[in-house]
Write a structure and sequence with these properties.
single chain, 120 residues, alpha+beta, Thrombin, subunit H
Amino acid sequence: MKEEREYVRLDTAKDVRYKVLSEKGHLDSKSKNISAGGIRFFAKESLEPRGILDLVIYLGEEYKPVMAMGEVVWSRKLDKPIDSKEYEIGVKFTAIDKSDSTKINEFVHRETIKRRKGSS
């Protein structure tokens, strides 16, 4: 059975800053992929499912940082750590400004077109 997604997802390594709401201090990471509905990123530690995160996502110089709140959907240990990060975290956005959601959609669309042109 093929999984249907509401939003197009793009594999991309972008800087992500996140904070677990119940804890102090932000942590820096890299994304694995992103869509207007959520993000997958790497973390040093496992994060509890249903935990709420404050996120800042840096899409690139031509975009202002995206701010969102998200809920941890899953957390899994990697077979091999990536840049000292041992876990992969799946997050669903629960609160994101419409303009930030549009910004992510535009970014995903532009990058997808660039990659298709580059591979032909």
